[in-house]
Structures are given as structure tokens and as C-alpha cells.
Amino acid sequence: MELKRIYLGLFGLLFVYTLRAQPLDVLNLRCEQLENPVGLDVVQPRLSWQLKSDLHHVKQTAYRIWVASSKALLEVGKPDLWNSGKVVSDESLLIAYKGKPLTSNDNCYWKVQVFSNKNDSAWSDMGQWSMGLLNAGDWKAKWIGYDKVSPWDSVTQWSQLSARYFRKNFSVQQKIKTAMLHIVGMGLYELFINGRRIGDQVLAPVPTDYRKSVLYNSFDVSADLVNGNNAIGVVLGNGRFFTMRQNYKPKKINTFGYPKLLLQLKITYADGSRKLIVSDDSWKFTADGPIRTNNEYDGEEYDATKEFPGWTTASFDDTKWQRPELVAAPKGILRAQLTPGMRVMDSIFPKKISRLKDSVYILDMGQNFAGWLRMKVKGSCGQKVRLRFAESLQPDGSLYTANLRDARVTDVYTLKGGAEEQWQPSFVYHGFRYVEIAGYPGVPSVDDFVGLLIYDQMTTIGKLETSNAMLNQVLKNAWWGIASNYKGMPVDCPQRNERQPWLGDRTQGALGESFLFNNATLYVKWLDDIRESQTEEGAIPDVAPAFWNYYSDNVTWPAAYILVAEMLYRQYGDRQSIVKHYPSMKKWMEYMQRKYMKDDLITKDKYGDWCVPPESLELIRSKDPLRNTNGTLMASAYYYHLLQTMKQFAVLAGRPGDVTSYDQQAARIKTAFNKTFLNGDHYDNNTITANLLPLYFGMVPENKTAAVKQQLIQKLQQDGMHISTGVIGTQWLLRGLTKYGYADAAFTLATNKTYPSWGYMAAQGATTIWELWNGNTANPQMNSQNHVMLLGDLVTWSFESLAGIQTDPVAAAFKKIRMQPVFAKDLDSVNASYESPYGLIKSSWKREGDTVNWRIELPANTSALINIPSDKVTVSGQPLKRVTDRKNNGTHLELGSGRYSFKIIVNQ
Ligand code: RAM
């Protein structure tokens, strides 16, 4: 009995010891910010990992990276490609590969050992990546297609072009070691091998300006091939390549040609011998298949009676199919797609179906979103079901389509008949909450339909709940709006005949979005799009990729080029984007200065403070000069701010010599700006935007700062504490108010329920964010109900100020976290978490009487500067030990990783 107890005791000790001995873990391995990517064309991929530990103040002290050309070599400790050796460093993000030069189709397996300041070390599990085709000469495939319309196609304003189907049989004779497939399917493709769909990407590849870049996707298909006969099948949709509207406004809308395919499959057999399968004129082709027409804006028509069962298997008889043509390559350079692209990210189950008239029904999804509808149906051969999509309903219950302009957004499915059929489109997406269903055999029920939400694959990394239900609803609406508008690029809206990647909508929006979504690779890709859109002279358009030609030489929209790069550095630690784009950014700055700088002010502005709340509810744009902010003021203030940003970039990009010239220009602009616009104690016509921009950008003379700040609150009071800014002012509004001591006013704006406010939209039943503050009453020509540009800095402010989770701008990517929550007067609690590149950050506070209890969690290998607006604070039950200073009635301290809880006496 005694002995048993001793044994148990010993066992317990051992158990505790084992637990203690391994507190460190390494996880979430990433290569180029992706998990196990396939087909990279980056010769020095960058590797990242996270440390996890339950101890306090854990820092990485060193790391060792091993990269091997096979799993087996890595497992036996033979990293034949790279052994970094033990590197003394606390860096764990975006470490560039420095091993043996990598070549096309190489497979790389890696792991990392980390050492911590707790005398501890740990190895990660294995990560993996593979290389794409690094040289143009590696492509042996030929472009195939059919550069004409088929007899049933029509090319009009609403063009109809059927999908194109390609197939190829081939044989595999030996045991396969690897099989890597690279595909460019222009505009969009679906790929099949031996009857199976390859990959779960949809609407791939992500769109680019095909005159500049054409992106390929890569797949490891080793497990999809069989010994003996195999078949590849590819369907091509039109996408943005064959733009359906080129006959509509040819000067405005760019188009690139007929759909075309480039495909290359390299099989390496176990004995080392190789076989290459490439697209060429030995393939088979038809355009006479089930997808009769497909068009992003107008919909997809699918005739199931035209299906050819088994066409992607080797036994299919393709004698009736023709040979494809060898066609010219698109002008753009072939590059690997380094962002995952779109997927079906969620299913949405309809809430209600009701009969409108005869056999016409209205389906309510309960949520506005972008994607498509999957349908189950049973009927007889040739019956047609027509689905039409809209964001809202008219008073009589029918679809409201006036705000879609001339987009037809209609899918038609023709039944083959007999057993139950299931269908969803391939090459369209719709922005909708409601669907009109016509011609459905029998009585449709909600169970016959599922909505599929489509956006770029990325994780939701931020969550924030407060005690204010309206703010929670608005943040939820923001999430849906942002998700809906990620389409391989950030677009303005997903429903009408536009869907364009407008730069101005994301200038600060991208930062707010980064608190909700891990949007790093999407925006890295978008910076490339923007660079590609730059003219020889240096101009940057308002829309990039330039599917629309909008070169207006504006400042406030192209500013996104620089400010999105800043976001990528700040939130993700991506310095490379700054280095890469610095020359083009500088070129644009110089171009604008050369063409539009007069008397040290930038005189060109195109959109004003776009979409301020107008004087009458039917108006889209205000004509009232007191509501609108001077264009030269906004352009010059932005240009000034961009110079300050470029100054930091110059240092980060290794061009410190440029700093002086940015400084000099900025000083000149500041003088001219104040001379021209400072009017006693306010700027120009005293709008919020006119005062806020110079304040936020640091242009106001010191002796005027207090007075100008005062104007902000006075104007808000005049407007009954309501918003009066448009896209430009709102980008800095809540952060600005908070910075200048008006956090409670910021909170009021964020939670208002009456017009104009985000809450007003929600109170009218909006489940996303509108294009206009008065989106329910304005002219339908411009009132998308799913637009994110008016979000301004709402999401950023919610995370940075309400939750107090912000990165230090220099020790970026949350390496050093600045935690400074604002305990807004009317708010009782906040519960937030954010998956930063270093790991999970948590911040939750709850008010109880005059005490606020605040709990935080900081990931390993980070530290935080904590600022608490009170000097009566205890931490984890103990009076504070590490207080660095107690100025301004506040408590300021620095903490390492771990969990802490604070008791804070407020309202003293
Ligand atoms: C409209 C869209 C877009 C905006 C431009 C200026 O077409 O609303 O979001 O950026 O105008």
C-alpha cells in the first residue's frame, strides 16, 4: 500500500518533470506566408514559424533550419539543400532561404529547431514546398484554343460564349515518383484527371492584367494517376480574359482574346526516367458542351442534356471532338500564382422561400454575400429552371434589380430528366441575398438550395465582441462585406456590372481587413497588379488590374499603392514588398509632382471626399460646398503623408539617401498648405476632413493644434454627433478622434443607429455595408448594398482602440505589441482575439462599477508595451513591479509573453 503510494508519487513527479521539460513548441510553418505551397517561382522562398509556450517572457534566442530534397533525407538528419547552422537571432518570420540554388519542380522538405531564453529547444514537424517552372524555356507546352465564336455564340453587349472543353489521353507505364502539373487556363479553368476534379480552387487563376502577367497554378498529381491509361480534361470559362462587355464600351473596358490553355505535366518515374505531357494540337476539343454561356456579370447557362458523361476518363470516345488550334500566347509573362485564390469558403442555408406568382418563387438566404447557389431538382428532360439574383426586394416582394445596372445575373439550368439532379455554376459569381426561381418543376423548398460563399482562401484571424449589440452587428456586416469583395483582388462590389478593383476603397480599408482576415498574400499580389498598371511615364490608375482604363492622375486613390505596402510591413513584417515596389512608388510620386505640383500644392483631385452624406436623401453626391472638402487640400495633405511614408520606406529599402529630398518637399508643402488653407483656427471650409487630415498627418502648426482639434468635436456636435465624412475623411476619423481625446465621440459614431451611420444601415436590415450612407433612398444608379469603402478606419479602431491590440510600427508584425485599450464610457466589455504572425493575442476587459478587469495573452517571442489610463492597477493579483513610468495618470509597463490579468480602478 505504502509502496504503491510512493510509486504513484514518483510517477507524478516524473510526469510533472516531463511536462516542465518540454514547454516549448514550434508550429504553423509557412513558406512565402503559405502552408506547404506548390509551384513557387521565388528562388529564395521565405520561411516563418511560431513558438508556443505556456511560460512567461519566452523569447527565441536562436534557430536552425534544415531543408532537404526528400522526406527521407530530412528524417535521417541530412539536409542536403540547406543547413542554416545555429543562427543566433530572435527572428522567426520571413527568413530567406539561403541554401543550394533551387531549380524547376524541386521538392523541398524543411523543419526548424528553435532555442529559447528558458534554456530550452524544440524541433518543428515537417513543412514542405515545391518549385514551379523558373525559366520560360522550361515550358514545353503549346497554347491551344479556338480563336473564334461558335455558331450558337453571340457577341454583343451581353455576350454569350460557351465554355470550351479540352481532353487528352496518355499512358503511365511504371511506378511514379512524382507528377507535377502546371496549368494556365485563360480566363478560368476547371481541371480533371481520371474523372476527378483536381484541387478545390474555384474561379482560378486569380485575375491579372493579361497583357502583363499570366498566372499558372501547380498541382502535385502523383496520387491521381494510375498505371495504364489516364485522361486529363480541362474546361475553360471566359472570366476577365474574354471580357463579355468589350462590345459595350471598348475604350473603357479591356479585353484579351479567346479562352486558351497551356498545360504541362511532368512525370518522374521511380527509376528516374521522365515523361512530359503537354498541351498541343494532339489534344481534343469541343465548345458544344453543357455550359452554353458563362459571363461573370450576366450568369451561366447550363444544359444538362449536352453533358458527355465520362469525358475526363480514359475510356471516353472523343472521335467526334475536333483538334484545337495552336494559338498565340497572351502577351503577359508567365508567373506562379502565389496567393491561394478563391474557394467555396462556407455554406449558407436559406431562411425562407415564398411564392411570388404562378410558378415564380423568392428564396431568402438571410444574408447578402457573394458566391453562387447549388440546387437540387427533379423533373423531365428539357425543363428549364431560371435563377435571378438580387440584394433586396421591392415592396411587392419581387426582386429589386435597379441597382445592378445592366448586369443580367441570371443562371439557367436545363434538366436532363429522370433522377434527381444537382447543379451549381462554374464560371460566375453573384452578389445576392434573394433569388427568384422560375420554372422549377414542382414546389421548391429551402432544402433544395444551398448558398456557397466564395472568396479568397484565407483564415479569419480576428474576433471582437463587445457589450454593444449594434457594434457587434456592424462588425459582422463588415466581415461579410469584406469576404464578399475578395475576388483574387479586392473589388468594390460583387453584384452590378462593375466589380472593379478600385484602389481608393482599400487605402486604409486593407489595414482594417487585416484585423479580420489573413489577407497578406492577396495584397502582396495586388501590389504587383498595381505596379503592372503603371504607365511608362509613371501614372497609376484608380483601378488595377486595369480592366477599366481609369488613369485620372488622382492622388487619394493611387495612394493605396504605398499605404497597402505599409500595411503589409506593419501587420505582417513584409519588408520585401517595400523593397520591390519602392522604385515604382517613387516614380509615381515624381510623376505627380512633375505634372500637378503648383506653388507646392498638388492641384489634381478626381473624386473629392467621395460619398459624404448628401443634403438630400435621393442624391448620390452632395453638391453643397459646405459638405465637400477642397480637392487640392485633400490631394496635398495625402501627398504630404505619402512623403512621410516614403521617407520610412527609403530606410527600409536601403535608400537612405532619398530621405532628405522627401523631407524638403514635405516642408515646402506644409508651408504652402498652411498658408493657403489655415484660416485662423480651422482649415478651409471647416469640414471634419479638412481639419482631420492636416492634424492626423502632422501638418498643423503647434500653436494651432488645440484649436483645430476643438473644431472636430464642435462640428460633430453641430451634426448631432453624426458622421459627415466620405471615403477620405472616414479613413482616419475614429483613430483621429480617439488620438485627440474624443474616444467617447468615436464610440458614439461607431454605435449610432440613426442616419447617417453604419448602424443606420444595419437598422434598415443591411447584412453588409452600403456604398452610400443613404443607400436605401438614393438613386439606384450607384447604390451597391455590398461595398466596403465607407468602413474607413472602423475595424482598425475597434481592434486597436477598443481591444487595444496594435503593433509597434517599427518592431512590426506584433513583435512588439502596443496594448492601449480605450475603456469607452458607454461600453461595458470587449472580448477580442487576434492571430498575429507570432501567434494568438488576446485582450478582454469587463467593467464592474469603477473597476475594469482586463485579461491579456501575449504569444511567445513577442513583448508588449502596456498603457493603462489609470494609475491604480494590480497585475495578476500583485501590485505592479515592472512599471516603467506613471506619467499622465497612466500606467506604462513592458511585459513578455504569457497571460496576465489586471484590475484597474477607473473613474477616480
Ligand atoms: C464607384 C465605386 C468605387 C469607387 C469609385 C470612385 O464606381 O463606388 O467603389 O472607388 O466609384
Description:
The protein is α+β, with helices and mostly antiparallel strands. The protein has 16 helices and 47 strands. Helix 6 runs antiparallel to helix 7 (576-596) and helix 8 (631-652) runs parallel beside helix 10. It starts with a helix and ends with a strand. Residues 1-21 have low confidence and may be disordered. Alpha-L-rhamnopyranose binds at residues 492, 498, 502, 504-505, 607, 610, 771, 787, 789.
Provide tags for this entry.
single chain; alpha+beta; 10-stranded mixed beta sheet; 16 helices; 47 strands; 22% helix; binds alpha-L-rhamnopyranose
- Radius of gyration, in Å, reads 29 Å
Q: Tell me the major beta sheet.
A: 10 strands, mixed
Question: How large a portion of the residues is in β-strands, by DSSP E?
Answer: 25-35%
Instruction: Count the beta strands.
Output: 47
The structure class reads alpha+beta
| Multimerization status | single chain
- Which ligands does the model contain, each kind named once? alpha-L-rhamnopyranose
Helix content: 10-25%
**CA-based shape:** globular
Uncertain parts: 1-21
The pLDDT mean sits at: 95
Question: In DSSP terms, counting alpha (H) and pi (I) runs of 4 or more, how many helices?
Answer: 16
How far apart the termini lie comes to 60 Å
